[in-house]
Amino acid sequence: MDKLKDIVNEVIACGECLSYAMKYAMLHSNDKRTKICYGTVQNEWISGGKRYNHAWVETKGKVLDWQTMELGTSNYAKKGWPQKEFNEVWNPKNVKRYTPQEALDNRKKHGSINGWNW
To answer: Which residues lie across from 63 on neighbouring strands?
Structure first.
């Protein structure tokens, strides 16, 4: 079984979105309604419209990601984005959604928390 300390030590240079999503999966592995999401996002004021890979959690009508929940950026700091507004602002595309357990299984299978389908 994977240990949380192993996930915490795997840091991706572009940010902590992947490790945040995987930690969430580990803590909520039995919640089939929660989705661990991998896709691309974009918006004009952060990336100049350029798309980039991102990971986040969708649960109970909210989107939780490292930047919002841990770093505390946006009006939704520590609360999560309403799903509809996240979609309007960040324009997610090519989104793959996994249950927390599926995400954990993929990490074990591929040996990485990186987006397995990017």
So the answer is: 58, 81
